[in-house]
Each structure stands twice: as C-alpha cells, then as structure tokens.
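Figure 3 (text version): structure tokens given as input.
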C-alpha cells in the first residue's frame, strides 16, 4: 500500500502508456488498493478485479442504497463501473466463506467540478459517522475548515440539501454542490 506505483512501473521500463490492471485482490486489502488505484494519477485504460461480492455491491451502489458510501462515490467519480460476473464460492477449492464478483472499471472524466481533495474530504466526513445526519456529520469539516455552523446551514440550503438527510442519500453531484458552497466560506 505504501509503494510508489509510478516509480515501480518506471523502474520496470514503463513509458507512460495506458495501463490495464487485472487482479484477484486479497479481500482484506480490496478497498485500500482500489482507492489507491483510483486516486493515483496513473493512466488506467481499464481495471478488472475480483473482489468479495459485498465489496462489488458497494463499489457499484447508487445513492439511497444501504451499500452506498465513499467507495461507491470514488468509483462514480473516477470510473465507469460494471459487474462483469458473479463467482460463487463453490468454484474454489477449498471453498471460501464468501461469494466473489468480477468488476470492470473503465476511465471516466469526473463529471463534477468541485476540487477533488476538498470534495473527498466532505464525502469522507459525511460518511464518517453513518447514522448521523449530514449536518451533524459535517461538523468535522466545519471545525477543520474553520467555518461557522451558520455557514454550513447556508451551504446546505444553497445546495438544496435537507440538513436532516443522511449521507447515503446524497449523490456525487449533491456532494459537489455542497463542497463548492462550503468553499465559498473558507
């Protein structure tokens, strides 16, 4: 996880051409590895990964789903994602305790215009305390960015977001609008 992937590739003779990542990821490292790949500035032409089925569901979840979260939003921001196939546990020897799925991710130009770092800070804060309302969950951003609670309320209103909604109900576009409104107060 701490390796500099670009440096490793360059040391192996890579000259910047688009990359294809194909992996059967260790399930305990799946989310951090996918996030690192998505957030890297490496030119991935595609990523095809076998992951635990529950992770695939989270990767491809839509706003409003109980499986929707930071990983879902990262996939939506960076990639076009699709379920390629389900892989039942019975095809492995010995059979693991969980089913798997193959997910294909293709490149996508982000369709929102909030600055990436700030956008994901707001997203992570929103999901940092899943059962809290978005207004309460974003108090960490208010503190970190030295904003007033009134500015948060105003930003939510201008972004057309109900303060008592939970983060899993907000789309990527909602988070982008909210981030831009919050940044006006920084």
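Below: residues designed for each position.
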């Amino acid at each position: 996880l701490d390796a500099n992937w670009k440096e490793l590739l360059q040391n192996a003779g890579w000259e910047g051409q688009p990359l294809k990542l194909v992996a059967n990821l260790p399930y305990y490292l799946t989310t951090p590895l996918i996030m690192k790949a998505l957030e890297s500035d490496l030119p991935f032409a595609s990523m095809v990964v076998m992951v635990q089925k529950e992770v695939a569901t989270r990767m491809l979840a839509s706003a409003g789903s109980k499986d929707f979260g930071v990983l879902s939003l990262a996939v939506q921001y960076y990639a076009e994602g699709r379920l390629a196939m389900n892989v039942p546990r019975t095809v492995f020897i010995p059979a693991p305790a969980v089913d798997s799925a193959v997910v294909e991710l293709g490149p996508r130009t982000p369709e929102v215009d909030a600055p990436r770092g700030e956008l994901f800070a707001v997203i992570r804060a929103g999901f940092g305390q899943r059962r809290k309302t978005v207004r309460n969950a974003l108090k960490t951003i208010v503190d970190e960015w030295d904003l007033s609670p009134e500015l948060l309320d105003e930003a939510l209103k201008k972004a057309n977001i109900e303060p008592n909604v939970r983060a899993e109900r907000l789309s990527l576009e909602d988070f982008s609008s909210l981030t831009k409104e919050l940044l006006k107060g920084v």
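The chain has a mean pLDDT of 94.
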